[in-house]
Structure prediction request, 476 residues.
Amino acid sequence: MKKILAFLVTLSVASSCNVLDQVPESAFTPTNFYKNSDDAIAAISSVYDQLNTQDLYNQVMWIVQDQATDDAEWGGGRSTANQAKNDLDKYTFTPATSTFQSTWSAQYRAINRANAAIERIPAITMDAALQGRLIAEAKFMRAFYYFTLVRFFGDVPLVLKETTSLTDLQISRTPKEEVYAQIIKDFTEAEAVLPASYSGADRGRATKGAATAFLAKVHLTRQDWTNAAAKAKQVIDSGMYDLWATYPEAFAIVNKNGKEAVFEVQALGGGFVEGSWMQGYMRPNFDRVNNISGFGDDPVTKNLYETYTAADKRRDVNIRIYSATSTPAAPASVDFPGYVYKYLDPSATGNNEGSNNFPVIRYADVLLMYAEALNELGAGNAEAFAAVNKIRARAGLAALPASLSQAAFRDAILLERRLELAFEGHRWYDLVRTGKLVQAIKAQNPTIQVTENHQLLPIPQTERDVNPNLTQNPGY
Prediction:
């Protein structure tokens, strides 16, 4: 996917007293930038570009979505190495924890870029079809970022216009139902325009199917089971997606943006400054690939590893175990010597040089959403069983018995999502939306002081310091 890394304004200071009257030739401003189709494409690329940064899917999102669940535990000598990760793991975080500020700022930065594109691209004289597609991509991405923000923080400021000055920035939080209404509107309008697929360098951009899948997830989150099932079925019936024959194929670099990928964060190693940090951050510091040590993020819990059966073909793809006799050996200080293996890029020559895309939504997720929604609409639905059993069959597991009650099937789906989608950024959201966060964290580590208030993250203190109109979530 084409990317523009940044828009830079360069001002060279010279001795001339008239230097400040000159306009730098390299300056990009709203008045001289949005002139042609290349500018429009670059503007949309800048909206996507925030995804592959350390403030979002190149670190922070893993920390929040994994470290704050029962799948990863910061311990075994790691607790003093990175306080923010330990605080997330132990639920001792506060509004001042830096992780929340970085993800808040990054997403609003991207939203402002999307707002600018939505407002300014219509005025460009260019191919009408391309113009419409780019605007639809901007709406898709705006909805994407707001969907993350509203699930993290609840009520958040809903800003739909480009910010062009430093005045009138003290905006109050918008009720989450209004935010969700805008998310649904943006995804729906994008769905109506976006193409089913792309070719060449454009592969990885938002598609019609991705918008439909996100609508399914939005409706599932809001427990609108009828619309969740309908949208998931729409993706299934499109014929655009399918499972790979084996689980490892879903994460093979050669299969990026392939038939199981609905929407992925793009990464490209090889010195292009667009590589993924996953293979570096998630590999432990006692493991070396191409003579490069990892950082040990997302250390896997024993709880997760033992939840897999030995017959489950997904376990050893998702998790690698080291022991005292391994080469290299795991340090004795590590609580449980398991680490995330599915994103390792053995050809990478640096920790930030992985070519692995991050799978935000895979087709397996769509099948599981469909099964969950159908079950909530009534027990014993044959299509619900067929959807989840297709995934279980690939994992080498027996089909779920058709005699399962609605409650038992509900529990089975939550478990299947944990095993199938491990370390793909779903677990925290799944635990929160099903009301199982406290129960799951306590089962994994009874000493963690998690409460129901933790189902929302705190509004960053730095934001409240500059904007007194931002209220705080309960318990913080």
About this structure: The chain has 18 helices and six strands.
